[in-house]
């Protein structure tokens, strides 16, 4: 080996020595850090009411929806409302061209007047004939003839009154008024359109306007046989929507079907809730939570404190942890009832439990109440 090569190897070894020494120091630091106390978040066990809820998602529907359609055909003369407008019961919404209906009404009124005059004349003739027949001044044939004329006049008067009522009805149904307080959900026709009531049932937006009352709303869901046996009419329920996070709208179960759908084998359940501020909008998705059971003064801990659904880590004196078997009761999306294994005031680990074991030293970074 040449002298030049020996010098090169020597320089290389001198450069590598600091690197090995730095690596050793870093490893020692990691080892020292790994043996430090585990930092955890704990929760202090408390007593409170806990309820178990079944949660479903469905479409919010208005309590009442009606397509406003006249009961007679005709040309639309006016529409007095716009989409999104709030209306009151009895308010004018739209009107057909009523010129023909008004003329028919005048004609019917005149016919009634004529029929009443004829009836009065026939009535007087009948009264006169009854006096004469008692005096044997007229024959039976004459008496019967006047009686038949009197009956015919009465029938003609009834017929004229019926025609008048029909004319009034045709005029009334040509004027469309709101049957309840609500909001105009859609305007389905324009002034000048000819509308035929016989075609009113073929489209969800048929008629002149669609009126909705969603001061109260409902959500209909399909429930399995295992869940429906826990649901009863009148049970408390709540609605939530993504537009208002953290806010619940209280309601109740209004319908529980007792027979399953033959196709899906599920049961129809309906939940209703008051919506006075009109915050819940029809035809949007909502979530309902039906309270099926509850316990008062239960010992509860957060869901993430329970490991493998059977144990928790309890903090002992000296900031060490102990693995504790527990039995659980009711649970909801956030909390779990503990039936045995912990006591009121115990502190259990809710975050940072990975790698813990009996006697592990911990550092509490936060205590949740």
Which key features would you list for this structure?
OB fold (Dihydrolipoamide Acetyltransferase, E2P); conserved putative lor/sdh protein from methanococcus maripaludis s2 fold; four-stranded antiparallel sheet; six-stranded antiparallel beta barrel; 369 residues; disordered N terminus; 29% helix
Map the helices and strands.
Blueprint lengths: L2 H32 L3 E7 L1 E23 L5 E6 L6 E2 L4 E5 L2 H36 L5 H34 L1 E3 L4 E6 L6 E2 L13 E15 L1 H4 L7 E5 L8 E8 L10 E8 L10 E18 L8 E6 L3 E6 L1 E5 L3 E6 L6 E5 L10 E7 L1
Parallel strand pairs: 1-19
Antiparallel strand pairs: 1-18, 2-9, 2-13, 3-5, 3-8, 4-7, 5-6, 7-9, 9-12, 10-11, 10-13, 11-12, 13-17, 14-15, 16-17
Helix pairs in contact: 2-3
Description:
The structure is a single chain. The chain is of the alpha+beta class. It has 4 domains: 38-51 and 296-368, conserved putative lor/sdh protein from methanococcus maripaludis s2 fold, CATH 2.40.420; 55-61 and 213-295, Elongation Factor Tu (Ef-tu), domain 3, CATH 2.40.30.170; 70-97 and 175-207, RNA polymerase II/Efflux pump adaptor protein, barrel-sandwich hybrid domain (OB fold (Dihydrolipoamide Acetyltransferase, E2P)); 99-173, Helix hairpin bin (Helix Hairpins, Orthogonal Bundle). It has 4 helices and 19 strands. The chain has helices spanning 3-34, 99-134, 140-173, 225-228, and strands at residues 38-44, 46-68, 74-79, 86-87, 92-96, 175-177, 182-187, 194-195, 209-223, 236-240, 249-256, 267-274, 285-302, 311-316, 320-325, 327-331, 335-340, 347-351, 362-368. The strands form 4 sheets. Strands 2-9-12-11-10-13 form a 6-stranded antiparallel barrel. A 4-stranded antiparallel beta sheet has the order 6-5-3-8. It has a 3-stranded mixed beta sheet with strand order 18-1-19, with no helix packed on it. The radius of gyration is 43 Å and the shape is elongated. Mean pLDDT is 86; it is low at 1-34.
